[in-house]
What we know:
Layout: E1 5-8, H1 19-34, E2 43-49, E3 52-57, E4 62-66, E5 71-75
Antiparallel strand pairs: 1-2, 2-3, 3-4, 4-5
Amino acid sequence: MQLGTRWSVGGELPNQLPEVVAIAVQTVEADIVSAGADTSGWRWTLTWLEGKPVIELDDGTVIRYDAADDSATITQRVAVDDDEDW
């Protein structure tokens, strides 16, 4: 059994993450910084699902690891404009 953890955006990543997942986290953080978002209170949450890391950012971004391909998939929440008139 592996325990999850939380850490702040820009903070030190857990050591047990596969390199490709760490790169994905760094990529997401770089994109957020370049967009000018205030991430001072944002945190990552790491959970383990069937021995594989699943990481979620407070904004809904999720990173999943595929051990077979040694790849990471980043899924970002898409904002929907509900104010649009029909």
